[in-house]
Amino acid sequence: MGAAGIVFWGSMQYASTIESCQKVKDYINGPFGHYIINVTSAAKICSHFLCKGKGRCVRKHSDSNAFLHLFPESFRIMVHANATHKKAIVKGKLELENLKYLRNNFVCQCYQGWKGLDCEEHYNKEGN
């Protein structure tokens, strides 16, 4: 759940000049980076509330139009900057209607060692 790195597929044109490098940096620190933060945060929130943090959310119907994004009426991505770096922080809380949307459109895929609709049951290799 997140990005440890990214790959831009294309030519060396991305790094051919200082200006083109700056454009890529601005894109990563701007819209692309905000999108990654949005999707990663939404996945973490869904996992926490639907799967008790013991699984990940997947669409109930793979062909649906449901996406894991932060709810704009409930969350904001705030960027704090100082002289050396920027940091993005997600502010907000999950509202009841947001939780209903998640429950209606997603189910849990439990991590190893967990089972149940909400991944609340712990089990070992012997099935206990």
Give a verbal description of the structure.
GO terms for molecular function: hyalurononglucosaminidase activity. Its main location: secreted. Its EC number is 3.2.1.35. It is found in: Secreted. Helices cover 34% and strands 22% of the residues. It is α+β, with helices and mostly antiparallel strands and 128 residues long. The chain has one domain (14-122). Strands 1-4 form a two-stranded antiparallel sheet. The protein has a two-stranded antiparallel sheet with strand order 2-3. A hairpin with a 4-residue loop joins strand 2 and strand 3. It is elongated and about 55 Å long. The model has no long low-confidence stretch (mean pLDDT 90).
Give the total of domains. Answer: 1
Distance between the termini: 28 Å
Count of helical stretches: 2
Strand order of the largest sheet: 1-4
EC number: 3.2.1.35
Protein name: Hyaluronidase
Family: Belongs to the glycosyl hydrolase 56 family.
Organism: Micrurus lemniscatus lemniscatus
Topology:
Blueprint: H1 18-51, E1 55-59, E2 75-81, E3 86-92, H2 96-105, E4 106-110, E5 114-115, E6 121-122
Antiparallel strand pairs: 1-4, 2-3, 5-6
Features:
two-stranded antiparallel sheet, elongated, 34% helix, two-stranded antiparallel ribbon
Short description:
With 128 residues, the protein is of the alpha+beta class. It has helices at 18-51, 96-105, and strands spanning 55-59, 75-81, 86-92, 106-110, 114-115, 121-122.
